[in-house]
């Protein structure tokens, strides 16, 4: 039972996804390591393919440190969108959603118009029905007044 304790300073540092993909030595000062962990290589691969590693580093460094994680998320989103749609990128999705919104608004307006027509039709039918009920009541009252069976005069 021969166990050796490895000192903390001699442990192997796991390279980030960027350094793994670019086959570079990843040191503790790597600016991409906090945002591209070693097991998320596909995340960096898309960003690298669309923007290039040096541009990604420059863009990240241009953003204040508290906002860098959000900036990387935006870069990853845009890169994935750009790989899916090389011409429009994320704006293609935005245009598609805007078109859907317009179509749905048009459908909603059409349905509102149909509802209004149905309400008017219902009101007309209720008017006819109420008129018929009043006529039947009047006929019944008149019949009862003139029919001796109901105590009316003959």
From TrEMBL:
Q: Which Pfam families match?
A: LOB
Instruction: Extract the signal peptide range.
Output: none
Cite the PROSITE patterns for this sequence: LOB (PS50891)
Q: Which UniProt keywords apply?
A: Coiled coil
Coiled-coil intervals in this record? 94-121
- Domain LOB per the UniProt entry, residue ranges: 14-115
Q: Family per UniProt?
A: Belongs to the LOB domain-containing protein family.
User: What name does this protein carry?
Assistant: LOB domain-containing protein
- Organism of provenance: Prunus armeniaca (Apricot)
Q: What is the lineage of its organism?
A: Eukaryota, Viridiplantae, Streptophyta, Embryophyta, Tracheophyta
